[in-house]
Write a structure and sequence with these properties.
By secondary structure, this protein is mostly beta strands. It is built from one helix and 27 strands.
Length: 376
């Protein structure tokens, strides 16, 4: 125990040894994350490996021999993590790299990968990585970053008991004359091991003009409210059935796509988040007939450089295209569909990691949407 405490003191002294370090840590988008806390999340499957690439840049004028040390701040029982740096990958029981990674002045090393293995366990694992050189000069050069690997301990279920974490669900009506409101109920299960105070945030991916939507969670909110402000208390191991999403089409056909994020950030200081997307669809007179439509994809999902959709229309359709939007609702890619059938390719290599919606648009109307995950 004494040796462990001395090791931790040594590592933290390294982290704070130099106020203006010539080492800089960048994420995969080349954003400077030195001294910051970043979160890598999965709310779909607790068996999925979570990986993070970091770049280490030598901004000084001297060549450096760099090591990395790992500090485990918090981890769910039964989970594990490891890292690769330089030419070596280290097993989970190794906290400090054994082989030096040279980084010449002005260069950037891209070899570091941090891996988290949840092994089916929910919750947050918090790890601090400290990159340092204490050998090439009389002064220690260091930089650190804290990474929270989060596997959601919140489970979302529809009214029939299907788990919908990270999924897109549809509520469909073909009655444009009398459909006053379309609704869906979602149940939230707390498996975190702690009692939670939950909130919900709505993201509008796309909305049919002239329509309104709102939600109830704890209390009912006006259509202009995106984030609940009254918490809903959920005891550990229990299910809350109080969430309702309402859609008021007012006879306007088309698809309105909304994403709801349920979160609590009061327990760990790290948001526990689970989300789902709902597509409210109203079809009827004047709407394109999609009977006989084949629409498979996007795949692979998650996508790296490209994603594909196989499609086939039962009859010719004019002015049709695929629209890819980010979680803010901004269109980031459009692919025209100029034939009755084929394979459409989405270029995802330039998109940031995250969740997108991929929608089929015909004659300016959003007909259906699918979730697209980009992971490089």
């Amino acid at each position: 125990m004494k040796q462990l405490l001395l090791s931790l003191v040594f590592l933290f002294s390294i982290a704070w040894a130099s106020a203006e370090s010539s080492l800089q840590i960048l994420d995969h988008n080349n954003k400077n994350v030195t001294g910051k806390t970043i979160t890598i999340s999965s709310n779909v499957d607790a068996e999925i490996l979570l990986s993070l690439q970091l770049k280490v840049k030598n901004t000084g004028s001297n060549n450096l021999d760099v090591f990395v040390a790992r500090i485990r701040n918090l981890e769910p029982l039964g989970s594990d993590n490891s890292f690769c740096f330089g030419v070596n990958c280290y097993p989970p029981f190794i906290d400090t790299s054994q082989i030096v990674t040279p980084i010449v002045a002005g260069a950037t090393d891209t070899s570091f990968v941090g891996d988290y293995y949840p092994y089916g366990n929910l919750g947050v694992s918090s790890v601090t990585y400290i990159f340092y050189d204490n050998t090439t000069s009389g002064t220690t050069v260091s930089a650190s970053v804290t990474v929270n690997y989060s596997v959601s301990s919140l489970k979302l279920f529809d009214a029939t008991g299907n788990c919908i974490n990270g999924s897109a669900v549809e509520v469909l009506s073909t009655d444009t004359s009398s459909a006053a409101v379309l609704s869906t109920i979602v149940k939230i299960q707390n498996n975190s091991g702690q009692n939670l105070e939950m909130f919900v945030h709505r993201i509008t991916n796309s909305a049919v003009p002239g329509t309104l939507n709102s939600f109830c969670y704890g209390i009912c909110y006006q259509p202009e409210t995106d984030t609940s402000f009254v918490s809903v208390f959920i005891h550990n191991g229990t299910v809350d059935s109080g969430f309702v999403a309402d859609y008021y089409p007012d006879k306007h056909g088309g698809t309105t796509s909304l994403t709801y994020e349920f979160f609590d950030n009061s327990i760990f200081g790290i948001p526990l988040v689970a989300d789902f997307t709902i597509n409210f669809i109203l079809r009827g007179v004047g709407m394109p007939d999609l009977e006989g439509l084949t629409f498979n994809g996007p795949y692979p999902n998650p996508a790296g450089a490209n994603a594909f959709i196989d499609y086939s229309f039962a009859k010719p359709v004019n002015n049709s295209y695929l629209s890819v939007r980010n979680i803010l609702g901004s269109e980031v890619e459009r692919v025209m569909m100029n034939s009755e059938s084929g394979k459409a390719m989405l270029l995802t290599s330039d998109l940031a990691n995250g969740i997108y919606s991929c929608s089929l648009v015909i004659d300016g109307k959003n007909m259906l949407s699918r979730k697209l995950i980009v992971s490089h």
